[in-house]
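Complex 311.
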Amino acid sequence: MTAPALVLHHYDFSNYSEKVRLTLGLKGLAWHAVTIPAWAPKPDYTPLTAGYRRTPALQIGADVYCDTALICALLDERVPAPALWPVSAGERALGEALVYWAEHALFRPLALYITGLHARRFPPEFHADRARLHGKPTPAIEAVEAAAGRYWPQVLPGLERLERLLGDGRRWVLGEAVSLADFALYEAPWFLETIGGSAALPAALTATRDWVARVAAIGHGRPSALGAGEALALARAATPAPLAPGDATTPEGITPGERVSVRPLDQDAPAVGRLARCDAERITLAVDGPLTGPLHVHFPRVGYRLSRQRV
Ligand SMILES: N[C@@H](CCC(=O)N[C@@H](CS)C(=O)NCC(=O)O)C(=O)O
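Predicted structure with glutathione bound:
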């Protein structure tokens, strides 16, 4: 039996998608690429994700995996070699802390810096959407531009820290072997170069520049374009994979079968469905809609709040 197709719903300049694309590249996988809108509404996407609107998600038939932490862990489970963490348990724990630092402390101010710098390249809908995503009112374009000057001083020390890390001659962030820590740290210089042009990464960061080239050489595996309608048809034609037993009750006092919402901790519209399964690591919602048929939509526990949905 052939393995069901991997379908990544993403867009080109999505940094979190780049982490997954590199994971697919490391593992040498073939995958289908559905390009989704970079801002809401996403009418062919959110029916597949129970309403979750962030990017990316990985679809395998009628199972949809949201959040790159879960997507990368899942790919590592399904295709164990080359491993995403080919290091000791202690080094992995350090690497996981680095991933968190990279995506929150380094990347977030960098995103605000770069969208400020190139504010007028993005349409007003983009700025309104990003403000809404974080529960803020739509800013004036001048305010978005002004943020660039405020955020660069937050970004540069982070890039210099990365340069010191790589400057001791190591080939990869954790030493001898490439790991998921490389892909998460790569998001920042990659985004700078992708949106800001090749001069955006300071020339003095030479160890970082060499490492950026090494990471980029890993590539994206073998993507092939797929239409959004075809992805929905794949979901309709499939049934969700059977679930292993989970917890009888969650720490929130919710039992499987109840209607729940799952929401990123840092604001957002929630995903809504019936709780199909939950444990300390993952939350699975069951949803059913005319465009998709029955689906299981999976989220990691970390970074998401599970609540009973009041009707
Ligand atoms: N924790 C999430 C974060 C995903 C995220 O914030 N992605 C950005 C794009 S790189 C996003 O969703 N932006 C808004 C959008 O695409 O609509 C993950 O790891 O997948």
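The beta strands are 7-10, 30-35, 57-60, 63-66, 222-225, 259-264, 271-278, 282-289, 293-300, 304-308.
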